[in-house]
Inverse folding.
C-alpha cells in the first residue's frame, strides 16, 4: 500500500474482514486513498478524483418531486416533466445493438493480449427501450487479464448519462474508467440501487447508493454485490492498454482524462461510432491534509469546495481535481503539507467535456474533436483556450511526492483532429507545426520531453517531465510554410539594353510577392547569336539582383540559354522554388 491511509479499507480491516486470494495479485493491496477525518474535532481537506455511483438508474422529475423509475417505460414515470439517467453500458455480445464495450487489451512485450470478460458486478440492469432510444444498462464490467505472468482483476465502467425532456432520450456525457481492483468481503455490502423516499412534507425524493453506505466513503467501491466490494488497485508498471467502445454518434467534442501518450482511432458505425483509445495509465500525485479543526480555516475551504460531516468533526472538505476550486485547495495546502503530495494513484480514464467546440468545426461523422490528458493533481478541466497566439492549459500540483524528496514530474498530452485544429484557428490544409512550453512564475521551464506530430488525421502534442507548482502549458500552433513556386516571362529587353524597364521591375515585384515561401530564383536569359552571350548573362544578373531587392533571403542563379527561336531573343524567364 502506498503512503497514506485508506478510509474504507482501514475501517473494514479493523472489523477483522478478509480479502480475496483467488487470483495472483499484481498490487500488494488496495490503492492509496486520502486519510479521512478521525472523529470529533478532526477535519480532512481532499482534492478528489472523478467518481461514479456504481449502479445504473433512471430518475424522474415532476414539479418539486424526484423519484426512481424502474424502466424507461415505467407507468409511474409517464406523465412527468423530465428524466435523467446514469447508465453503465454492457459488454458487446450477440443481441446488443446499442452502445457497449467492445475490447480491452494489454500490450505485454510488444504483443497485444485481450482481457477476458468475467461477468457483471451484480445483476442490476435496465432493459432497452427502442421506441424512446434508451439503451440497455447494466452494472460495471469485470475482466481478467494476464500481464507479465500475473493475473490482474479489472473493472471497466463505461457510463453514459441521458436526459429526457420529450418522448426520446438524448445522450449528454460519456465516462470510461478502467482499473485493477481488489476484493474486500463484508456481510454488510449489498448491490445497492436507486430508491424513492418521502421527506417530512410527504414529498418524494430520489436517492441512489452503491450498496456500501455504511462505509465512510462508499465511492471507493468501484463495484459491489452482496457481501463483496471491489476497491481500486494500481496498474502494473510499464503497461499500455487499448480500450474500444461503441458510443452514440452524438458523443462529440472533447475528452479530458488521466492517460499518457494516447493514440486515438474513430470509425463511424451508422448511429454509433467506434472509439478506440490506446494509452498508458498515469500516476497522479494526490493532494490531501488531515488535522484538528481548531485553528484550521474551515470557512475558507468551505467557500472553495464542498463538504460533508459535522462542523465539529468529523468533517471532510473537498474540491474536484478539475477547475478553479482544485487550484484554490492546492494553493492553500501547499505550505501546510510542506509542498508534498499525500500519495498517488495509477489511473486510466476519459470523460467528455460538454459544449467544447463550435458545431461549425465538427463536420461529417468524425464528431470527436480531441483529447486533453494529464497527471497533474489539479487541471483546467476544459478545452485549452486560444489567446494571444497560443493554446493555454492550466495545471498545478505539489512540488514533491509524498516522501518530500522525489520531484513530482508532470505529463500533458493533447490529441486534436487535424481538421478541427485548422477550422478552429483558420488554418489551411497545409501541415500544422507547433511548439510546447511550460511556463511558471519563473518563466519558461526546460521540459524533459516535448513531442509534436501529425499522423492519420490527428495532431498530437505532449510535454513530459516538468516540475510543479502552478504552471501554464502553452502550445503555439502554426502552419508549415509550403513553397508556392512561380515562373514568369519578363517583357523583352529592347535592342542592346541591359537595364530593367519600369514594366520589367513591376513584373519582378509581382513575381516575388506571389512566390510564397520559396527560397531560390533562377533567371534564364535567352539569346540567338553567340556574340550576344555576355549581354544575355548581364541581363539575367540584373533581373536576379532586382529579385533580391524584394526578398533579400533569396539564393539567386543567373544562367543563359541559346535558342533558334527569334521571338525568344532578349527574353528573361524567372523561376522560383
Amino acid at each position: 500500500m502506498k503512503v497514506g491511509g485508506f478510509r474504507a479499507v482501514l475501517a473494514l480491516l479493523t472489523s477483522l474482514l478478509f480479502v480475496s486470494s483467488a487470483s495472483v495479485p499484481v498490487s500488494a493491496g488496495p490503492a492509496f486513498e486520502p486519510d479521512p477525518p478521525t472523529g470529533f474535532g478532526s477535519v480532512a481537506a481532499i482534492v478528489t478524483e472523478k467518481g461514479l455511483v456504481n449502479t445504473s438508474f433512471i430518475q424522474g422529475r415532476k414539479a418539486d418531486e424526484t423519484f426512481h423509475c424502474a424502466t424507461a417505460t415505467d407507468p409511474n414515470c409517464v406523465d412527468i416533466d423530465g428524466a435523467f439517467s446514469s447508465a453503465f453500458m454492457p459488454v458487446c455480445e450477440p443481441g446488443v445493438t446499442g452502445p457497449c464495450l467492445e475490447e480491452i487489451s494489454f500490450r505485454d512485450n510488444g504483443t497485444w493480449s485481450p482481457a477476458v470478460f468475467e461477468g457483471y458486478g451484480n445483476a442490476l440492469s435496465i432493459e432497452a427501450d427502442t421506441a424512446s432510444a434508451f439503451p440497455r444498462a447494466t452494472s460495471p464490467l469485470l475482466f481478467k487479464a494476464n500481464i507479465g505472468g500475473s493475473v490482474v482483476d479489472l473493472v471497466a465502467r463505461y457510463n453514459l448519462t441521458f436526459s429526457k425532456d420529450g418522448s426520446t432520450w438524448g445522450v449528454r456525457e460519456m465516462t470510461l474508467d478502467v482499473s485493477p481492483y481488489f476484493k474486500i468481503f463484508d456481510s454488510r455490502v449489498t448491490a445497492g440501487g436507486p430508491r424513492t423516499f418521502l421527506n417530512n412534507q410527504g414529498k418524494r425524493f430520489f436517492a441512489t447508493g452503491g450498496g456500501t453506505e455504511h462505509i465512510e466513503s462508499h465511492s471507493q467501491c468501484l463495484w459491489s454485490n452482496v457481501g463483496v466490494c471491489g476497491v481500486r488497485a494500481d496498474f502494473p508498471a510499464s503497461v499500455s492498454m487499448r480500450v474500444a467502445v461503441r458510443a452514440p454518434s452524438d458523443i462529440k467534442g472533447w475528452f479530458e482524462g488521466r492517460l499518457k501518450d494516447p493514440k486515438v482511432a474513430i470509425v463511424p458505425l451508422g448511429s454509433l461510432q467506434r472509439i478506440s483509445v490506446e494509452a498508458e495509465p498515469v500516476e497522479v500525485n494526490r493532494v490531501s491534509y488531515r488535522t484538528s479543526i481548531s485553528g484550521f480555516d474551515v470557512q475558507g475551504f468551505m467557500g472553495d469546495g464542498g463538504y460533508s460531516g459535522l462542523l465539529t468533526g468529523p468533517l471532510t472538505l473537498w474540491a474536484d481535481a478539475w477547475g478553479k476550486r482544485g487550484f484554490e485547495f492546492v494553493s492553500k495546502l501547499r505550505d501546510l503539507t510542506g509542498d508534498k503530495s499525500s500519495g498517488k494513484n495509477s489511473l486510466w480514464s476519459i470523460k467528455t467535456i460538454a459544449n467544447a467546440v463550435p458545431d461549425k468545426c465538427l463536420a461529417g461523422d468524425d464528431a470527436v474533436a480531441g483529447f486533453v490528458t494529464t497527471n497533474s493533481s489539479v487541471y483546467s478541466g476544459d478545452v485549452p483556450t486560444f489567446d494571444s497566439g497560443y493554446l493555454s492549459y492550466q495545471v498545478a500540483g505539489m512540488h514533491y511526492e509524498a516522501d518530500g524528496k522525489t520531484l513530482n514530474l508532470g505529463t500533458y498530452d493533447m490529441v486534436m483532429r487535424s481538421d478541427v485544429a485548422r477550422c478552429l484557428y483558420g488554418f489551411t490544409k497545409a501541415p500544422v507545426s507547433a511548439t510546447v512550453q511550460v511556463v511558471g512564475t519563473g518563466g519558461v521551464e526546460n521540459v524533459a520531453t516535448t513531442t509534436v506530430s501529425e499522423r492519420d488525421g490527428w495532431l498530437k502534442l505532449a510535454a513530459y517531465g516538468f516540475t510543479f507548482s502552478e504552471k501554464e502549458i502553452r502550445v503555439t500552433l502554426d502552419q508549415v510554410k509550403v513553397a508556392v513556386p512561380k515562373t514568369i516571362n519578363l517583357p523583352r529587353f529592347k535592342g542592346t539594353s541591359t537595364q530593367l524597364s519600369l514594366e520589367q521591375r513591376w513584373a519582378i515585384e509581382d513575381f516575388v510577392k506571389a512566390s510564397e515561401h520559396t527560397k531560390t530564383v533562377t533567371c534564364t536569359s535567352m539569346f540567338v547569336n553567340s556574340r550576344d552571350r555576355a549581354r544575355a548573362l548581364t541581363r539575367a544578373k540584373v533581373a536576379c539582383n532586382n529579385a533580391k531587392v524584394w526578398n533579400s533571403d533569396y539564393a539567386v542563379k543567373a544562367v543563359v540559354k541559346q535558342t533558334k527561336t527569334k521571338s525568344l531573343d532578349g527574353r528573361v524567364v524567372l523561376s522560383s522554388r
Remarks:
- The chain has a mean pLDDT of 86.
- The radius of gyration is 32 Å.
